[in-house]
Specification:
By secondary structure, this protein is mainly beta. Helices cover about 0% and strands about 45% of the residues. It has one helix and 64 strands.
Length: about 725
């Protein structure tokens, strides 16, 4: 019995209605064509064909279910008899079955379920809410590739569940006929993906216009699985009170391949729209968040992930609520850029470079992990994926206390080149520090000298920090000035008036961050600020000898030059600790000379220090300067000890002569300047000890003696070159 006969019977029994007398389920009987040139015997009201037959040219009523049975392939073609609109109740496509073709045909589903365990390819679907069917579900283990989909909700409540992997070939308007009483919601179920080739217009009619003043009361769009949008996601509204909430639940994903999340900036009304991300937000757009304000909010919650996988110049968008992300992953190509001040509460994975520009990046995680630990707030950085401080922006990070398990923190910053530094905390204090690096040396103070690394590292505590830290700074060969001496360099800090001096040491050649770099360490820093890498450089004066000795008239300094070039004068400097030097005199130079010249200077120190340190600061007419090596003078007498330590400075061995008279010394120790014990030996009066120093790093070492380690006195110190 075909459809025409069924309508005729209904008219005979119920002349006041145009609906059929009964509803049926249509089962496909094989593969074929459904349309004007349909396949005969394509349908039957029984799965096995024992019921009422229908041809492929027949069409169901709005109360009939349609089932395409397993392995059957049904092609929709032009259906002029019904104006290319098929009305049915529920639609089922069984496993390995396919409904395809018919891009111009609209299937109106009046029931509550479309079940696809096989595949739908290219039909258009409209789900109609009725008085008895107010919850529409697309479900199944198959897939749907749909030309168009719309949801009629006239005067009804219509809630949509997408429990089927679905691809939509056009824009998505979740509700395209809003009226005064229309309400509804959407859910993309767990482990299912809805991919939209175009854009998604939430809370808008089919023309993309936002319906004003409560006429559209669509309230929620929940993603438990995945929503993938090739265009934009619009979530504006003109509502006065009703909010629109888009929830990306834990474990779910919102992915915009090239479009943006766009709010309704400029729209009237007072209702607040929120995109609330508890799962993952993936963006390939250059400007991922647009049109946001206090009424249109995009929020990244605790445990959420923002993945930015666009191209060069993509923004790590500060339009996110309060400028806060939880986890961030930088991917794609080219450097990303801050669009404003950003806080990342947990971790950032550096798949690309991040340029701060004039904005600050605040990594607020108060972590306890070590240098290579998993608790660090920034991961996978290297010479091409680092934080570029290419403007006035700063990187703020936490430095944990040593006792909490993590004392080494690397600030992976650079400007033009990758020049990170590692801060080491050996004490219990902790706190946040700001860091950035700039090209050139600032504040100025090195004159036109060219014996330094042409970078300035800034490292400053956010609040008072009572501990000392060690810094290891990394740089590249291309960062060095022409006269920089890598074999005798140090970390120099700007003390407010000038750049200070530290014991020169040879830079290490390390490959810690995936590239060969040079590094130098400075310990016991209690003051912070601006740092650079200075060196003794290449002296414009050929200094062949510099010595000092103690005499009854004071300390006698002598030096000799083999030649001089534009040498204005020598500044003689003195120190009692080898670190802090002060000017004690000046000797005029020879200008330019090819002849050998001898110089001397006498100085009577007022300090009762055991050892005294001297160096020369040679200054040219044009203001350039260089430092000589440091020489040490042992005091003639001391109330503490007459132990002799020589030579000083040392290369491979230092000799220690213990007097046969005086205070009894049973144990002798050597400590580094940062308090590490590097040597210990039992001794006796009159001993002459030869200590190997080849394994020691360059720096200052202190010699102590006594009866045990708890009763020590300082006997002297020496410098290891």
């Amino acid at each position: 019995m075909n459809t025409a006969y069924r309508y005729l019977l209904s008219l005979l029994f119920l002349p006041i209605t145009i609906l059929p007398l009964f509803s049926a389920t249509w089962y496909s009987q094989g593969s074929g064509v459904w349309g004007d040139t349909g396949t005969p015997g394509l349908w039957n009201t029984a799965p096995n064909g024992s019921g009422m037959p229908f041809d492929g040219t027949d069409f169901p009523s709005a109360g009939d279910d349609v089932v395409i049975q397993s392995t059957h392939q049904v092609e929709l073609t032009d259906f002029s008899a019904v104006g290319n609109i098929l009305d049915l109740q529920n639609l089922t496509v069984e496993q390995d079955a396919v409904l395809f073709g018919g891009a111009a045909i609209m299937i109106n589903v009046h029931g509550s379920v479309v079940t696809v365990n096989g595949a739908i390819n290219y039909p258009s679907l409209q789900l109609l809410a009725t008085a008895t069917a107010q919850f529409n579900t697309l479900k199944g283990v198959g897939s749907a590739n749909i030309e168009n989909v719309s949801f009629e909700q006239s005067l009804q409540t219509n809630n949509i569940s997408i429990d089927l992997n679905t691809f939509l070939n056009t824009d998505l308007y979740p509700f395209n006929d809003p009226t005064a009483s229309s309400v509804g919601s959407w859910t993309i179920e767990k482990n299912k993906t809805l991919e939209v080739l175009g854009s998604v217009f939430l809370d808008a009619d089919a023309g993309g216009a936002y319906v004003a003043n409560n006429f559209d009361t669509f309230t929620s769009f929940d993603v438990l699985g995945s929503l993938k949008v090739n265009g934009d996601l619009h979530f504006g509204n003109n509502n006065n009170t009703n909010p629109l909430i888009v929830q990306i639940m834990t474990g779910a994903t919102l992915e915009l391949l090239s479009g943006a999340v766009i709010g309704g900036s400029g729209l009237s009304g007072a209702g607040v729209s929120v995109v609330d991300v508890q799962g993952t937000f993936i963006s390939g757009a250059n400007d991922p968040l647009q049109g946001l304000n206090s009424r249109f909010v995009f929020r990244m919650n605790t445990n959420s992930l923002g993945r930015f996988n666009g191209g060069a110049g993509q923004l790590l968008d500060a339009d996110v609520a309060a400028g806060i992300y939880y986890d961030v992953e930088l991917a794609g190509t080219g450097p990303k850029q801050l669009s404003g001040n950003i806080e990342i509460q947990n971790e950032v994975d550096m798949g690309t470079m991040l340029e701060l520009g004039n904005f600050d990046l605040y990594l607020s995680k108060m972590f306890t992990g070590g240098f290579f630990g998993t608790d660090l707030p920034i991961n996978n950085f290297d010479a091409s994926t680092y934080i570029a401080t290419n403007g006035n922006g700063k990187l703020r990070m936490w430095i944990p206390a040593a006792g909490l398990g993590g004392s080494n923190v690397t600030f992976p910053i650079g400007r033009s080149t990758f020049t990170p530094f590692t801060a080491t905390n050996s004490f219990a204090g902790s706190g946040y520090f700001d860091a950035w690096v700039e090209n050139g040396v600032s504040p100025s103070g090195l004159g036109t000298n060219t014996d330094f690394v042409d970078k300035t590292w800034h490292f400053e505590p956010v609040a008072a920090f009572g501990n000392t830290l060690s810094l290891q700074i990394f740089w590249n060969g291309v960062d060095e000035q022409s006269n920089f001496d890598r074999s005798a360099c140090w970390i120099s800090r700007f003390d407010g008036t000038g750049w200070d001096y530290n014991f020169p040491a040879s830079a290490s050649n390390l490959n810690v961050f995936g590239a060969s770099q040079y590094a130098i360490l400075r310990s016991n820093l209690s003051n912070f600020g601006a740092f650079t890498i200075a060196s003794d450089g290449i002296l414009p004066v050929e200094l062949v000898d510099f010595r000092a000795e103690a005499t009854t008239s004071g300390h006698h300094l002598q030096w000799q030059t083999a030649s001089e070039l534009n040498n204005s004068h020598f500044e003689v400097q003195h120190s009692t600790d080898g670190l802090r030097f002060e000017r004690i005199g000046e000797v005029a130079g020879q200008g330019t000379s090819e002849e050998s010249t001898n110089y001397e200077w006498y100085y009577q120190p007022t300090s009762r220090a055991i050892q005294h340190y001297y160096r020369l600061r040679q200054i040219d007419y044009d203001g350039q300067f260089s430092f000589s090596n440091i020489v040490v003078v042992q005091a003639l007498s001391s109330s503490q000890s007459s132990v002799q330590i020589y030579p000083n400075p040392v290369m491979d061995h230092v000799k220690i002569l213990i007097p046969s008279e005086g205070r009894v010394i049973d144990q002798m120790f050597i400590f580094s300047i940062d308090g590490r014990r590097v040597w210990q030996q039992a001794v006796a009066s009159g001993d002459q000890i030869d200590v190997s120093c080849s394994y020691l790093d360059a720096g200052v070492y202190l010699v102590y003696g006594g009866k045990n380690e708890q009763q020590l006195m300082l006997l002297g110190q020496f410098i290891k070159d």
